[in-house]
Amino acid sequence: MPSLAEFDELKFDHSVKRLDKPSAYLLRKARKNPNGLEELRQSLQSATIYVGNLSFYTSEEQIYELFSKCGFIKRIIMGLDRFKFTPCGFCFVIYSNAQEALNALKYLSDTKLDDKHITIDLDPGFEDGRQFGRGRGGGQVSDELRFEFDASRGGFALPFAEQMHTEGNNGFNEHIDNNGSGYIPPADAMGTFSTNQSRFGGSGDIAQEEGDFKPKQRDDERGDVIGSHDGMNNDENEDDNYIPQ
How far, in Å, CA of 180 to CA of 158, rounded? Predict the structure, then answer.
């Protein structure tokens, strides 16, 4: 297996990190790939860069306006959802020479574009087919592993929520499907998930118990109570009509 010692960073206390070095992702990928060393060397001589963490709403014109500050751009290839053919948060920028690509890597990394801190990495060269997402839902894999809500990248990760479906919670799965956003509310926000559990504390069909439920009658609507009240009123009337002798 080829050694990547020439790309390993030398730690000097009096020096800063190089801005044009390959990312940790490329180094990790190169160690697993038998041709990884050759691809890394090719990336340093390539005029193509990879741009990630883009907003789904960032246009090609905005990307051109930003990256043209580092050189002449020959082509911009937007990353697309392989099912919907809509932007999914990454792109490839091809410059006229390798030095311009290195300048973009050094000076534009972590730039804020459309309220997103973009990431830039070296790329050995664009090949047809790489413009499509590789996730199960058609987008990027990183979006399917994201837990937090991100409005600029499609909201919640619905494909990841679909992976959480199990056979024992069909009612809960129906709620996720009807919701359409993949949001998983806490249990106390939805109440009980079982249709056999009554909201009144017992078991059985909820609709049946609601139909059998009768409100408590008022005292003046009950005959036995009215009779007792009438008896008390007669005694009080006799006391009022009492004439001492």
Answer: 8
As given in the structure block, the two tokens for residue 106 are 């050094």
3-class secondary-structure state, position 233: helix
Q: What is the pLDDT of residue 7?
A: 64
3-state secondary structure of 166: coil
Alpha-carbon gap, residue 86 to 63, rounded angstroms: 16
Q: Which CATH architecture has domain 18-123?
A: 2-Layer Sandwich (3.30)
Instruction: Please say whether the dihedral angle defined by the alpha carbons of residues 145, 147, 150 and 151, taken in this order, is positive or negative.
Output: positive
Q: Taking residues 104-115, report their average pLDDT.
A: 91
Residue with tokens 């050995």: 124
Q: What is the largest CA-CA distance in the chain?
A: 129
Alpha-carbon distance 203 to 187, whole Å? 19
* Gap between the Cα atoms of 138 and 2, Å rounded: 34
Q: Which residue has the tokens 């709620």?
A: 175
Domain limits of the chain? 18-123, 141-190
Residue range 46-53: mean pLDDT, rounded: 92
Nearest to 29 by CA among 136, 130, 122: 122
Beta carbons of 104 and 113 less than 8 angstroms apart: no
